[in-house]
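To assess whether the prediction recovers the assembly geometry, we first specified each molecular entity separately, as shown.
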Amino acid sequence: MAAGVLLLLGLSGLLCLSPSQAGKLLVMPTDGSHWIGMKPVVEELGRRGHEVVVVIPEVGMAVGSSKNTKTITYPVPYTKAEMEEGFTASVHEILNHNVVTDLEKVWNFINILDLLNDVAVRNLESMLFNKELVQKLEDWKFDALLTDPFEPMGVIMGEYLSIPSVYMQVNLPCGVDSIASQCPSPPSYVPQRYTFYTEVMSFWERSVNLVRITLQPLACRRLYTRADEIASRFLQREASVVEIMSRAAIWLMRLDFAFEFSRPLMPNMITIGGMSAVKPKPLAQDLEEFVNGSGDHGFVVFTLGSMVSELPEAKAREFFEAFRQIPQRVLWRYTGVVPKDAPKNVKLMKWLPQNDLLAHPKAKAFITHGGTHGLYEGLCNGVPMVMIPLFGDQGDNVQRMVVRGVAESLNIFDITSEKLLGALRKVINDKSYKEKMMKLSAIHKDRPVEPLDLAVFWTEFVMRHKGAQHLRPAAHDLNWVQYHSLDVIGFLFLVLVTFICVMLKTCQFCFRRCCRSSNKKKKE
Amino acid sequence: MAAGVLLLLGLSGLLCLSPSQAGKLLVMPTDGSHWIGMKPVVEELGRRGHEVVVVIPEVGMAVGSSKNTKTITYPVPYTKAEMEEGFTASVHEILNHNVVTDLEKVWNFINILDLLNDVAVRNLESMLFNKELVQKLEDWKFDALLTDPFEPMGVIMGEYLSIPSVYMQVNLPCGVDSIASQCPSPPSYVPQRYTFYTEVMSFWERSVNLVRITLQPLACRRLYTRADEIASRFLQREASVVEIMSRAAIWLMRLDFAFEFSRPLMPNMITIGGMSAVKPKPLAQDLEEFVNGSGDHGFVVFTLGSMVSELPEAKAREFFEAFRQIPQRVLWRYTGVVPKDAPKNVKLMKWLPQNDLLAHPKAKAFITHGGTHGLYEGLCNGVPMVMIPLFGDQGDNVQRMVVRGVAESLNIFDITSEKLLGALRKVINDKSYKEKMMKLSAIHKDRPVEPLDLAVFWTEFVMRHKGAQHLRPAAHDLNWVQYHSLDVIGFLFLVLVTFICVMLKTCQFCFRRCCRSSNKKKKE
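The predicted structure of the complete assembly is given in tokenized form:
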């Protein structure tokens, strides 16, 4: 049977709303790849006739205007150059230092998170205390809010405006999605993000995982200290971001179980992983000619994401050396220093039509840092990967692909041309990688509704019904002790102990009486 | 905004398969209302071009042939009359005895379950040890199995044939669905079936709920003792039904969160509640005339399910008396004794077109026993209910509707015309019942894919991909102690205690040294 026989017609192609059905949606995205993930949903909602208002900072990396929407910007106390400089410095540090142990990687991640958090907090203050803007949003009378809670300004604004919120997210730090949604994450088989564990953990890994889960509320408190303070000031009551997040109507989770390990979800969590992998377009003529140039050997696509297009010269040389020794051609998004004797089978570009290239039948391998967008594009198009994680959730993403036998992973800190060559030859020549990837790809693409349509549907659902109260579990009304039934366990334990004591005492009493009467008899 | 704007075109209307895409599906249903729930899926799969083979006992209550399928029957050692007699006796006992306390209700339920279990075990032996039939099924080389695990013969046959299984179920006894699927059911807010609790529980209720959850594995062992023995004999190895069930590829859960309390689900659990509520047909002319006869007062629909169409005379009289005093007309599925002075606003029928009647704009109330089919039909059509639970999960179903403010519940054991009248007037005249029901109905009907299409999609998915291995959590490979991290907690506790001991000893040592040196100094 052919796969995907039952795929539905995308909603996107089907309907537009009449004015009476259209609503007003406030959108507060997060910059960078997060915005790339959210943009198609926002544009589709606008296309369907809703009044979609996107609020973004004046200065951003990827965030900007979008089709079919109104964009409102607010001033921020930093320039684009300053922001980019911060990120470049962080990336530079990662690429030039030997961050090898897992602990170093986590520490490294915390540093980047702090940097992002700095930007988030500055945005937060600039937006929330911009009276004119806030008044404007209040007057708009929105039906709902769509936000990426990675930056909590949308979270707080939704609470202030008392409108139901849809959160679109991927791998929030400190596991705040599980905490706020009350979604069980059994530490025995649900590896925490940034542990780089798989679903099958050793005793030691399970121990670390449990400690990590236990410490997460503390990590969240640290992460959101400044946001909590700002939220309290803005809402004029004691407030915390995590508490506000617990009132989210819908969580649009950018994950798919062809990639993510199976684990419990709450009914208000909707999986929309793989939205970015859209229908490919044909390649430009020069690209088409280049990729066809190596005949049956095919070609390799290589990018390290939107943030990293340069490499330290020595490291870059290792890549060039490896590429020189393969029969495939290579398309590499690279703007760094090029050695004089760069091999001719390598084409360097400032920007790659990544999805279109991966969809080409001659794409043999994909060298990637393991960001979710690229990962789903590779998965969708069935291209085996060589993965070189840099920071954030990339290390975890890589584990998930490696354990499924569709990728090899390398460490950027000690990469050599030999290692790269070995990994590339393995994923290209060992047919099992391609076969497993094709099976995984078929599973990933075989779904009753396209992720974009699901995201649109549930956002509109929240607009239509003023929330999704019926999906909210009663767990939110319990405290920690009650949720874990610790009071009940204590009570039952007490009952058991009392019962045993009474039984023992009774036995003792009976035994003594028996002894006494038998003693009496003896004496008599 | 109008509700349901985004409802998709049903798959059913869209596609049929080409012969190369069609597969072979074995279906093993359970009798009674269970079969009514499964039949549309089976027929749709047949219509789409698959070879669907339904295996049923020669003798059944509701189970029988279906469109677009092959039906195979096997002989059983009982007659239809014997089977019906058993059930009639049970129902008679319920209706004629005062089963009032919750404990009595549970006991009553266990008795009915034992009766059903007797039938199941007899079917099981008749089918599994029918060599000719088993050989025939083996030769068929099915791609997958669709079964209702309420009767475990499909479960065991799927294991024997080594084909992936799709389970379609509603409220399995002893919570075997949660146990076998490793789905977390926090006892603090997920009320166990047959407790008749809601999601908000008192301390006492939480205690009972926890004890119930703890005892469930034992209850399952009791329920499946004979099936386990037969399975071991048939498979020629030590086998248990619960263990086999843990390998289910997909669980099609006949629930919807407009009705069920929000709680965690596993990714291989697909909710398909409300499948029975199909598009209504216009009423026959005489019925249409009858229901229009009371003008704006409208009419009441009254059935106690497919198994109960009679009532003890005294009880029936209470109903007739109540109906005499309302301005509505009443349509009642009733075949019992009719008093001479039966009120004229009551029409008694052997069978009611329940869904078509509930969809009529003049339907004002629905008197029902709270079976899932009727319940979803009432919910879909937005008709407030007076609910009179009889047995099984009906008591729990009723609680779910009452707590949402869309129904009143009555006890069949002490029902009087006054009580019935009070409840009927309440749900008809107090507008809040209708308003809440309309909101709940809108939420229930507003979904991205119709439940029937979802059931068809996931069954075909399992046929296409030979299972759904990617949705299977690693929890299945852990034992109870590991799953609950008890070994890790013990280890961490030991580390903590050791750490504290070492710290104390060190302090003690230092303190002593200090004391000794100061004593020495003093002495000196």
